[in-house]
Design brief:
eleven-stranded mixed sheet, four-stranded antiparallel sheet, 11 helices, about 30% helix, globular
Length: about 375
């Protein structure tokens, strides 16, 4: 698929991009589905290609080395992290300290949530892009001005600096809060390591990015088996906002694909590996030293897939641009500054013009 064919950021012509008329899972369960319902059929907008090469070159970062007391081991890990952020923009994280029991509990309760009757979940239908809890389907528009719905049921919740979570099933809220807190500590350490590699003072980075009040959002995406997976998408090509998105998947079901040097590759993490996507704001803050990962999600005919992503950014009201010491060192900023909250909201309110928001923030001299 061409990068400009579809954008999840292109919903300006909707009253709001979210809806919950009927979950994808309930459609699959209600009949012996042989063909894709027309509202999910992206091919009506001109077709698309979801082919990707298998890949064994995605970098692997050992988080325990980043926190090691051995200076040589830690220095090597910091350099490897910086290299992964500069080249691929996506990597696997091992020895991350996120307990397997906690991750398993999170997946079990999220599966229970997506098994709730539609009427129970409909109360969280998004009323606006800033709703603290949003559940439902997502509409996108193609460049030929046709709309379709992603083959995905989703739940998005804001978990920091204010915590929100659905009340059902119990104890989902307690599990999410503990998981989000642990992820936040992992991300803060990685941001600090990248800052160190760029020779930025950690206290400066903590203060200017307001990391103590960092914005964090958890998103769970459920992709039921699809009768015609080559005609639709789970998520269109996009970049994530923020610094790092920590993605957990289980059961070895493929779906995530990343673009590297113009070629699409499958990203299939081994067991106990987290996937980490570099976000747009790390690219901006680093003045281009780090590269945000451009990725998409495809679906399959045989197996359902559940993925849980936690996006992590600066404080919601931070006006984020390239770090001042890097601008001074480079002689110029390569990106414009923008309020982080406004940046996130513009994902859903801007008119689609064939460019990502990140492209629009780049300064061309």
């Amino acid at each position: 698929m061409a990068a400009s064919a579809v954008s999840e950021n292109s919903s300006a012509d909707f009253d709001h991009p979210f809806e919950f008329k009927k979950s994808v899972q309930s459609i699959v369960d209600s009949s012996d589905l042989k063909h894709l319902p027309s509202k999910y059929n992206l091919e009506l907008g001109g077709g698309h290609d979801t082919s990707a090469e298998s890949c064994e070159s995605v970098p692997v970062i050992d988080f325990s080395a980043l926190t090691s007391g051995d200076p040589l081991r830690r220095s090597k890990a910091v350099a490897e992290l910086a290299g992964a952020c500069a080249d691929w923009g996506v990597f696997f994280l091992v020895n991350h300290g996120l307990p397997e029991e906690l991750v398993a509990s999170l997946f079990a309760k999220m599966r229970e949530f997506f098994s709730l009757p539609d009427d129970d979940r409909k109360q969280y239908e998004g009323k606006s892009t800033s709703s603290p809890i949003v559940c439902g389907n997502f509409n996108v528009k193609t460049t030929s001005n046709q709309t379709f719905t992603l083959w995905r049921d989703f739940l998005k919740i804001h978990v920091h600096p204010e915590f929100h979570c659905p009340s059902k099933p119990e104890p989902l809220s307690e599990i999410v809060e503990e998981y989000a807190g642990r992820v936040r500590r992992v991300v803060r350490e990685m941001v600090g390591a990248i800052a160190e590699h760029m020779e930025l003072d950690r206290d400066y980075v903590e203060e200017v990015l307001e990391l103590k009040s960092s914005h964090q959002k958890l998103g769970a995406s459920f992709y039921p088996p699809c009768p015609q997976p080559d005609k639709t998408l789970g998520l269109p090509p996009h970049n994530d906002t923020g610094f790092f998105t920590i993605l957990a998947v289980r059961d070895g079901v493929p779906g995530l694909q990343t673009q590297h040097h113009g070629q699409w590759f499958e990203v299939n993490p081994p067991p106990n590996h987290m996937v980490v996507n570099v976000g747009e704001h790390l690219e901006i803050f680093s003045n281009g030293r780090c590269k945000s990962d451009f990725h998409r999600v495809v679906v399959n005919k045989e197996r359902e897939r559940l993925a849980i992503a936690v996006g992590n950014g600066p404080g919601p009201e931070v006006v984020l641009g390239p770090a001042a010491p890097l601008v001074e060192r480079d002689g110029r900023p390569n990106y414009r500054s923008m309020n982080y909250r406004e940046y996130m909201e513009s994902q859903f309110t801007r008119a689609y013009n064939g460019m990502s928001i990140l492209d629009e923030q780049k300064i061309h001299y």
